[in-house]
Amino acid sequence: MDFCFDNGVFKEVSNSPPTPQTAGCSTPHDKAHPALSEMLTNCVHCGFCLAVCPTYQMTGDENNSPRGRLRLWREEAEGRLAPDPFTAHYTTECVGCLACEPACPANVPYGEILEQVRHQHVDTARTRPPLSLRFAAALSKRQWLFNLAMFPARILRSLGILPHKFLFAGSPPLMESTAAYAQRLMAEHRPTGPRVALLTGCLMESVFREINFATVRVLIENNVQVVVPPDQGCCGAFQEHLGLDGIDQLRDQNRTAFGKASVDAVVCNSSGCGLALSKTLTDQVPVRDVLGFLGELKLAQRTPSEKDARVYVDLPCHLIHGQKQQGIPANVLNATGYRWELAPQARDCCGSGGIYNIQKPENSQEILRGKSEFLNNAAGSPVILATSNHVCMMQWNSARSAGLVTRPYQVKHVIQLLDPGEDGLRRGGKSAVS
Ligand code: SF4
Ligand code: SF4
């Protein structure tokens, strides 16, 4: 006997040839993934994943571990445990960091299972995401609307007013879009190297747009041709984290937008978005983290003016566990010109988890507490915490208002440390070749 999800509930499926009834037992996820029952039974309960799981390490509760959650889901799927709030609670406690995947000798695809279970719990009203997040997720499906809604946040940041703990300092362009900017710089500099399409992202484009602009400048400076498909959509990670519908529509939109871009790769400057998009464009066009992509080029070198600055590099979970990258290439970090080192516990989760820091703020801050305390005594002036995911940047910034870090520090995307600036780009022209 096998199982599948249908309309939000587990159903038994006979192993015999499909009947008209069982043939209809499918969801969009079933088409691309192995049967859920098979994925759930892959766990051999060895417990190797316990040591890397932040929620188990924080609570010592087996139900709050990968092994415990898989057990609960399987017990429900096989009918030995009735659906109850207990299982739903431990499902929402998971950060979704995916640290358990590389630790697992049985290759349990925990992320795929989690995605399906989250959907099932929302579909059956066992979990109800807050209205504000559902509203934001709905807005994110229309990039122009999301941009409009977030315009005040962009204005405040450009004025240096940071009223929320997640808003880190920066100067986002207010009116010009990344698509228009890339087109303008491409016409001005005419790079001749590899051609890439940039995913601009919903939150990145609407609130942290200066990172997209820096990404365009760095790529063009290194002789990369950049296009920004105007009809692209949100990567779908927002919906995925919340267990909401609408991912398939966004995936179709992005398959069309990036499929016709005629590029060597699609590059992403946020590891979470990159992971989500790589699931969308499977076999269509390579999806690359922009820093990994740049690591294969001979990069233009920066010379920072702050000689005593020290950069501490943190590695996003969705880069190293989700996209299975080794990290951020050393030659990219060396090209920043800064004295850098990996942050202590750089491979551990910071607690951001997409929207986990909004849904579970206490857990999230507790996870960040141990990881961020080194900044209080870190050498350097200024001290810069650099990473490659804007959601992790928001989380690191919140360590200040939470009182976890009491000394001044800056939060930067690594691409910003490579940025020549617009004037620098004009002065240097195409200063490196692939
Ligand atoms: S995704 Fe992270 S928090 Fe969730 S079970 Fe795996 S290791 Fe634990
Ligand atoms: S490491 Fe893998 S097989 Fe072992 S308990 Fe964890 S999920 Fe199960």
Question: How would you describe this structure to a colleague?
Answer:
The chain has 434 residues and is α/β, with parallel strands linked by helices. It has 3 domains: 2-123, Fumarate Reductase Iron-sulfur Protein, Chain B, domain 2, CATH 1.10.1060; 146-298, Rossmann fold, CATH 3.40.50; 310-417, no CATH class. The protein is 46% helix and 10% strand. The protein is built from 25 helices and 10 strands. The chain has helices spanning 20-23, 28-32, 36-41, 54-59, 66-77, 85-93, 100-103, 110-123, 131-140, 143-149, 151-158, 178-189, 202-206, 209-221, 237-242, 247-259, 271-280, 290-294, 317-322, 330-335, 356-359, 361-372, 390-401, 414-417, 421-428; strands at residues 2-6, 9-13, 195-199, 225-227, 265-268, 287-289, 310-313, 339-342, 383-387, 410-413. The strands form 3 sheets. A 4-stranded parallel beta sheet has the order 4-3-5-6, with helices on both faces. Strands 8-7-9-10 form a 4-stranded parallel beta sheet. β5 (265-268), α17 (271-280) and β6 (287-289) form a beta-alpha-beta unit. α12 runs parallel beside α14, α14 (209-221) runs parallel beside α25 and α22 (361-372) crosses α23 (390-401). It is globular, with a radius of gyration of 22 Å. The model is unreliable at 1-32 and 430-434 (pLDDT under 50). The structure holds iron/sulfur cluster (2 copies). One iron/sulfur cluster (SF4) binds at residues 52-55, 66, 69, 94-100, 110.
